[in-house]
Amino acid sequence: MPKKLDLTENLEKYIIDHSEALTDVQKQIIQYNISLGDQQRLQISVSQAQFLQTLIKISNIKKILEVGSFTGFSALSMALALPSDGLLISLDKNSEFSMKAQYFYEKANEKKIKQIIKPAIESLKELKDSSQKFDLIFIDADKENYLKYYETCIDLVNKNGLIIIDNVLWHGEVIDNTKNDKFTNIIREFNTHIKKDSRIIKNIIPIGDGLTICIKR
Ligand SMILES: C[S@@+](CC[C@H](N)C(=O)[O-])C[C@H]1O[C@@H](n2cnc3c(N)ncnc32)[C@H](O)[C@@H]1O
Questions:
Q1: Is 141 in the pocket of ligand 1 (CB under 6 A)?
Q2: Average pLDDT for 132-157
Q3: For the chain, domain boundaries
Q4: By the 8 A CB rule, do 168 and 139 touch?
Q5: 113 pLDDT band (50/70/90 cuts)?
Q6: How far apart are CA 87 and CA 111, in angstroms?
Q7: Which atom of ligand 1 is nearest to the CA of 141?
Q8: Of the chain's two ends, which shows fewer C-beta atoms within 10 Å, N or C?
Q9: How many Å lie between the centroid of ligand 1 and the Cα of residue 132?
């Protein structure tokens, strides 16, 4: 077996630098998020965005639902990978973040993104009631509701479609027996639920804070 890679910060920078280049507006969102201080950690990592873009392109994805948009970095990154007749519906309850995200979408002249600003549970119920289906659903909102989001999203995703969930390794704390706080346990329970779920094929990818890719059977 080859030697295991230690993914240091410098190696991550190298990977980003030698993968698909970011657009100016993607870079502007990152700069804006950095100006927010501690909240910048809410944004997915650049390598996660690049990975999602590759997945969208190779899977011929046209319709995406995002649960948790913050200032729009992940939504814009995914929308950029969609074909011109694609659509991305983004859900967030925070109107301040959503206004800023809309500002960046307009700056990027990106018209494929439609925002719904209210608690995601309500939006998901409405989407389900109107029989909407998606090729990819990206879950990255409040961890307390991850299970509820996932269970609704199973009905909203097409057969062979993808549900992708962020933060599933929780800074590596999922395997640290000394960590027994609320959020670490929520993520552990969520991961166990996914592990046991025979409706999907799953794979955890260790980029950013850990992504689970689920393929609906
Ligand atoms: C981790 S951030 C999303 C980051 C985003 N995907 C990105 O990469 O920039 C989580 C987002 O979920 C939103 N959120 C939290 N609870 C929510 C809820 N109950 N309904 C809808 N959105 C919620 C927050 O306002 C925040 O913008």
A1: yes
A2: 98
A3: 38-216
A4: no
A5: very high
A6: 9
A7: 12
A8: N
A9: 21
